[in-house]
Design goal:
CATH superfamily of the largest domain: Aromatic compound dioxygenase
Order of helices and strands: EEEHHHEEEEEEEEEHHEE
Shape: globular
Number of domains: 2
Largest sheet: 5 strands, mixed
Strand content: 15-25%
Number of strands: 14
Structural class: alpha+beta
CATH architecture of the largest domain: Sandwich
Distance between the termini: 52 Å
CATH class of the largest domain: Mainly Beta
Helix content: 10-25%
Length: 318
Amino acid sequence: MSIPEPTQTPDGPAYEGRLLDRRDEEIVDQGAAFDIRTLVTRRGVLGLAGVGLGAVVLAACAPSTSAGSASPTPTTTSGASGDDAVSVGEIPDETAGPYPGDGSNGPDVLEDSGIVRQDIRSSTDGGATADGVPLTFALQVIDLANGGVPFAGVAVYAWHCTAQGEYSMYSSGLEDVTYLRGVQVADADGRVSFTSVFPGCYSGRWPHIHFEVYPDVASITDSSAAIATSQLALPEAACAAVYAEAAYDGSARNLSQITLASDNVFGDDSGVLQVAAVTGSVQDGYSATLVVGVDTATTPAAGGGQGGAGGGGRPPSS
C-alpha cells in the first residue's frame, strides 16, 4: 500500500486541504494532533493504519462517519460505574458570540414553547423557513466528571447563521424570525441531533455552529446555568462544495480569506476537538457528527451573549 502524497499549495504541503504540521515529514508522521484534525473516515483510518498511522488515537477521539448514520459512535472502554465510557478531551469553552438568542443580551428564544425540536429549519411558530443545502448535525455529550459516560438528559441548545451569513432574531429583517435555533434533550447515549441547513461563511469567521449544554431542559431559560458553551467547526472540503451553490453567494470568497488556524475562536489549536466529521454531498445533503466532552468539575470560562474575545466577525445585516 502506497503512502499518501501531500498536495503542494501556496502555503506549503497539505493533505485533504489541511496544512502539514511537520512539513518535512510524511503524512503518516504528522503526529496525533494532525491525525485527529483531519478526521478521516473509518475507511481512511483503516487504509492508513497499514502504513503506521495511530488509528487507535483517532478511534478514541473522533466520532464514526459512516454514511448511514448521523450519530457519533466513539470507541468505548469500561467506566467506573459499569456503563460504557469514552476517552475524549474537554470541549474548549468559547464565546456564545453577540447573537445567542438565549436571553443574555436581549432576545430570548428559549422562552418559546416550540423551541424543543429536532427540525430547526423553520421559525418556532411554523412560519419562515431557511433555505440552503440540507445538513443534519449530531452531538454526543460525554460526562467527563463521571468517568466519561454518556451525559444522558442534558439539554443542548444549538444555533447558527443562514446560508447568507445572517442570524435570526438579530439581522435586519429577521428580528421576528426564530429559525436555525433549537433545543434537544440527550438520550441514554448522550446523543442529540438537529435537521438544518448548511451555514454560510461570513467575513472574519470560519464556518461554525454554536451550542450551549444545560443540565436539563428545565434549566434552558437561564443562560447562566449552561455547563458548557462551545462551537462546532465545519471541514473545509464540505464548505467549499456547498459554497459553490448560488444560495451561498459570498461565502466562497469569505472562506478563502480565513483558515482554522487564523480564526480567532478555533485558532488556538485549529479546532482539534471541534472540527466535525462530515459525510454527504450537495445533492444528497450532509451529516456532521462531533463528540463533546463536558466536565462539570471545571468552571466554564466563556459563555453568555456578550461577544467579547473570540467572538469573531459580524454577519451582514441584510
